[in-house]
Amino acid sequence: MANVHELKFLKEKIEDLKEQGVYRKLPVLESANQAEVILNGNKVINLSSNNYLGFANHPRLKKAAIDAVEKYGAGAGAVRTIIGNMSIHEELEALLSKFKREEAAFVYQSGFNCNAGTIQAVTEAGDIIISDELNHASIIDGSRLSKANRAIYKHSDMDSLEQVLKESRDKYRNILIITDGVFSMDGDIAKLPEIVELAEKYEAMTYVDDAHGSGVLGESGRGTVDHFGLHGRVDFTIGTLSKAIGVVGGYVAGSNTMYEWLSHRARPVLFSTSLPPAAVGAIMEALTMLMESTEYTDRLWDNAKYFKTKLGTLGFNTGHSETPITPVIIGDEAKTMEFSRKLLEKGVYVSGIVFPTVPKGTGRVRCMVTAAHTKEQLDKAVEVFEQVGKEMNIL
Ligand code: PMP
Fold first, then answer.
1. In this predicted model, what pLDDT tens digit does every residue of 213-248 receive, in sequence order?
2. Distance from C-alpha of 239 to C-alpha of 375, rounded to nearest angstrom
3. 264 catalytic, yes or no?
4. Helices 111-122 + 256-265 axis angle, to 10
5. For ligand 1, what atom is nearest to the CA of residue 112?
6. Is 89 one of the catalytic residues?
7. What are the pocket residues of ligand 1 if the criterion is a CB atom closer than 6 Å to any ligand atom?
8. Chain segment 269-313, per-residue pLDDT in tens
9. Is the ipTM of this complex over 0.95?
10. Which of 109, 112, 180, 252 to mutate to test the pocket of ligand 1 (most atoms within 8 A of CB)?
11. pTM
12. How many C-beta neighbours within 10 Å does residue 95 have?
């Protein structure tokens, strides 16, 4: 018994992590999340956050959060179905449906919760979920919570998707195709027009997780569906409020019927307290700012192109990203982590991403350029990339 309480079985697993060289401490941020931060006591240029538009520490969002706290308090006090559904939550959903140009939007406490709750609620035994092999972990977990069957198609490979659709057509009641809108490790955009056509041909439903497309692609950052002009042809569009929007939360945009059903069956909403007023106030301000002007999305794209071009000119392999996500592919796992460490020593924080998050031999540092970076900060980062690249014979 003593062994059980000492968690010896976990201690052994932790030792394994150390032997594999993947044990790490959580980095500690001692400032707001912005272009330049204090990380583990040092001032560094931050190229690692999803704060695409620099909203996480924006004065307008902070003011809106404070105003919401003054009116509604620090916490919502209950789940939405009991007494945690404040008028501010409903206002947020109305604003989101306007932003996404859909009939309705249903809000969760995070993007992860949104996938965990929605997929399970809209599928059941006798259905099949067909998922891109590179979809996000929350889609994988959400699908596992469903009683539906599951199938995977090769990444953005339409022949592979059609093959699975053909095999599924007469076997299942409903078919749900799920894809990320923008794939977070390579920055490529899903082939949504082709996916929607196949879905229509095989009478399948479509579900797009646009965590990295919302606030980035389309008119005023309305997302991947807007980017391709596919409004009304995608059944469920997920967005997160934690990346470009800069706060926390998630939502699914779609029809009124979807909304009605989820408000009865989305388990993370039925059994977990709703978003705090501060978050809701700040999110609404962010959405208002996005719809008011393209200043932030324009600056994001301008900075991303500037940085990507400079790295490419130096000779770095920046993959085939179509979005501000800028991977710098190093290849070898140990070399990738060393590259990331050396960049940090010289004042640039870019996280290293290696197997199993990406395939073996494709280790990369993933640069997340934001609207908040100045050209001077980006130039400084490029200079450091060049120094370390030469030092390590990558250039
Ligand atoms: N979906 C995708 C594609 C993501 O990249 C993420 C965040 N890593 C999520 C969902 C989860 O979003 P959140 O951080 O809001 O829980």
1. 999 999 999 999 999 999 999 999 999 999 999 999
2. 29
3. no
4. 100
5. 16
6. no
7. 110-112, 115, 136, 138, 180, 184, 209, 211-212, 240, 242, 250
8. 999 999 999 999 999 999 999 999 999 999 999 999 999 999 999
9. yes
10. 112
11. 0.96
12. 17
